[in-house]
Write a structure and sequence with these properties.
Blueprint lengths: L3 H14 L8 H10 L18 H12 L8 H21 L4 E2 L2 E2 L1 H5 L1 H20 L8 H28 L7 H26 L4 H28 L2 H4 L5 H4 L5 H9 L3 H9 L5 H14 L1 H21 L5 H16 L3
Antiparallel strand pairs: 1-2
Helix pairs in contact: 1-4, 1-6, 2-6, 3-4, 3-8, 3-16, 4-6, 4-7, 4-8, 7-8, 8-9, 9-15, 12-13, 12-15, 15-16
Length: 338
């Protein structure tokens, strides 16, 4: 989704946030660079998949919507991506995750303690990146406002992770509880990317709110689409086993809907409580979800929230070219395969 030149510029801004390190602590930073795809397991320079870089790209577009210079927004874009990767390092620990973007996770390579410390370091480097806004001429009061909103976003993400961890194995949670979780864990950072980018570009309070609203709905739709792909996605496209979320017993929206509406909801709950399932049990779960209409319901929910995102964006009185690109991003989201 991001253009090659933007990907290069975003990663250059991320690199610029890292401090100069003496040799005895260089490995601490190299572990973080491994997470970002810049080093291999031997910590030699490499060029692996850094992720979609969608959130930092949205920062640049949000700034342009308000008439700002995207170069000025680069430190913010870098900080948004760094805080996203910080959360992934800690998520992998908390979820006992073995792989991320096709490679072993940081903590699996260097251990739990070093993984935690590497994540903590990236948390701080994300903030150091935002402090660089002063170096590109952003007024101090704007920098302070963005830093405050940035930290509010991070605590919201942590709330979402708390809810996610609390819900593990809980087959009684309803859709409202699930939406409350993903609105914090996933949507909050997308909303911040849109809204903070617009504020940095000089947006009015009204335009900034519109951009926050667009990002929030975009993030919700993005996560529900992830839920669909986690069960029905093509393994060749996803790089994961078929129905990976069912194998992991993830209580995602399709499962929540099935547990509440399937005729065989009790059988579904019993199957889901079994720690391991063979192919026969897995296909039985899929059949129950299909018969309950879980897939269709989630597709409709995703489409509805996607429409809400575009409705918010269509109310924005900003620059037309970046608005058009944001619409294109939202539209590509519904058809994505990975």
């Amino acid at each position: 989704m991001t253009r090659p030149d933007d990907r290069i510029a975003i990663q250059a801004a991320m690199r610029a946030a890292f401090p100069q390190a003496e040799a005895r602590v260089a490995t601490f930073y190299h572990m973080q660079e491994y997470q970002l795809g810049w080093r291999d397991e031997q910590l030699q320079l490499a060029n692996y998949d850094p992720g979609k870089l969608l959130r930092p790209y949205i920062v640049l577009l949000g700034c342009q919507v308000a008439g700002g210079d995207p170069h000025t927004a680069m430190p913010l874009a870098a900080g948004i991506q760094l805080i996203h990767d910080f959360s992934l390092i800690h998520d992998d620990i908390e979820d006992d995750g073995d792989t991320r973007r096709g490679r072993p996770t940081v903590w699996k390579v260097w251990g739990l303690a070093q993984g935690l410390n590497a994540g903590d370091g990236m948390f701080v480097i994300a903030h150091l990146s935002l402090h660089r806004l002063s170096d590109v001429g952003v007024p101090p009061e704007v920098v302070l406002d963005i830093l405050r909103r940035f930290d509010q976003t991070i605590i919201t993400i942590c709330e979402g992770q708390y809810l996610d961890l609390s819900y593990e194995g809980n087959l009684a949670i309803d859709e409202a509880a699930y939406i409350a979780m993903i609105s914090r864990k996933t949507a909050a950072l997308v909303a911040a990317a849109c809204g903070l980018g617009a504020i940095l570009g000089g947006a009015s309070a009204s335009l900034a709110k519109t951009m926050f609203d667009f990002g929030q709905n975009l993030g919700l739709a993005f996560q529900i689409q992830d839920d669909l792909l986690g069960i029905w996605g093509d393994p060749a496209e996803m790089g994961k086993p078929f129905a990976a979320d069912l194998i992991r017993r993830k209580v995602s929206l399709p499962v929540i809907y099935g547990l509440q509406h399937a005729e065989q909801r009790r059988e579904l709950a019993q199957l889901y409580q079994q720690p391991h399932a063979g192919d026969e049990e897995l296909h039985h779960i899929l059949t129950i979800l299909e018969q309950a209409g879980s897939r269709a319901y989630c597709e409709q929910a995703c489409s509805r929230i996607h429409h809400q995102a575009l409705t918010a964006l269509n109310a924005a009185p900003g620059q037309q070219a970046p608005l058009a690109e944001l619409r294109a991003i939202a539209n590509r989201l519904l058809g994505r395969k990975s």
